[in-house]
Design a protein that fits this description.
Layout lengths: L15 E11 L4 E6 L12 E4 L4 E11 L2 E6 L5 H4 L5 E6 L13 H4 L3 E4 L4 E10 L4 E6 L4 E6 L5 E5 L4 E4 L7 E4 L1
Parallel strand pairs: 7-12
Antiparallel strand pairs: 1-2, 1-6, 2-5, 3-4, 3-6, 4-5, 7-8, 8-9, 9-10, 10-13, 11-12
């Protein structure tokens, strides 16, 4: 029997949240074009510590400004297109421990992964394994013990209550809206 390993970060390892994706250098001063993957672009500013790429290389933002649907960002110590080019096609992260808390009742997506999901009658549906981002609303991928997946839209008429203390989400199953898929 194969060993089952828990998902998520190993004990003691930081959880990193993606905030952007660096495309390529722009101009002659070392700026790079970064696609935004955060709801808080105003937090990306000079002095902000970030982590770049698969190895989470520590870096500091020296400047940032909005540009089209993204940002132009300069990383301290990389002031030419040639030096900044090393970050081409890499993700930019922040540590989950370095982000401010959200208002009461709101949660970062990474906090929801692993929650147990029950319906409004108390029946266990499974565990949130993934969150899909769609144009209209997010979709929670819930996997049960039989390895079947249920796709739940993250809308108020479905998500009734999120109890972070007990790590349980109560949902209402809407006829015809809940989709099952084999994994």
């Amino acid at each position: 029997m194969a060993e089952v390993k828990p998902s998520g970060s190993p004990k003691g390892e930081s959880v990193y949240l993606a905030i952007g994706f660096i495309r390529r250098p722009h101009g002659v001063t070392g700026e790079v074009i970064m696609d935004l993957h955060t709801d808080f672009p105003e937090r990306i500013k000079a002095g902000r510590k970030v982590y770049i790429g698969e190895k989470y290389e520590s870096a500091t933002v020296s400047s940032a400004r909005l540009h089209g649907n993204g940002m132009l960002v300069r990383i301290r110590g990389y002031e030419t297109p040639e030096t900044a080019g090393r970050f081409r096609n890499q993700w930019v992260y922040v540590k989950a421990t370095e982000v401010p808390p959200l208002p009461e009742g709101q949660h970062y997506k990474y906090e929801l992964v692993g929650l147990s999901v029950v319906d409004d009658n108390g029946n266990t549906l499974g565990t949130i394994m993934e969150i899909l981002e769609t144009g209209a609303n997010d979709v929670y991928v819930v996997k049960n013990e039989a390895d079947k997946e249920i796709l739940l839209p993250a809308i108020p008429s479905v998500v009734l209550e999120t109890d972070m203390e007990n790590r349980v989400m109560k949902v209402h199953l809407l006829d015809g809206l809940i989709e099952e898929r084999d994994s």
